[in-house]
Amino acid sequence: MRIGELAARAGASPRQVRFYEAKGLITSTRGPNDYRDYSEATLGRVQQIRELLNAGLSTHAIRGILPCLESPRDPIVFEGVTPETVAALEHERDRLTQRIDVLARNRDAIADYLTELQGRAD
């Protein structure tokens, strides 16, 4: 598929798709007309990248965990995983856990507030 279709289906802009490619997060082939051509699998990858970026991971961290995104459990990919990658993943996991905790507290506070508002409205 061409870049415009990939971007539209993934909820991204063509500029973002080109950025992901420049960062080595996705790849494309070139047709005879020199247009980029993306596989269907790239759509899922772009969606994963967007979710990870929205969660606060850097493109550098995402590039380090790409092998895990291919097959997170079976088989586990060990080739090319450095101690630095492991440390970065541990850091990102801990940072995400902290964000989840904050979001859960905020969600609970909003739910309590809504319950109080609805109780007073009755």
TrEMBL record:
Specify the domain of life of the species encoding this protein.
Bacteria
Q: Which UniProt keywords apply?
A: DNA-binding
TM stretches of this protein: none
Which Gene3D superfamilies does the UniProt entry name for this protein?
Answer: 1.10.1660.10
PROSITE patterns referenced in this protein's UniProt entry, alphabetically:
HTH_MERR_2 (PS50937)
Kindly give the Pfam families that the UniProt entry links to this protein: MerR_1
HTH merR-type domain mapped to chain residues: 1-68
What is the official name of this protein in its record? MerR family transcriptional regulator
**Species of the source:** Streptomyces lannensis
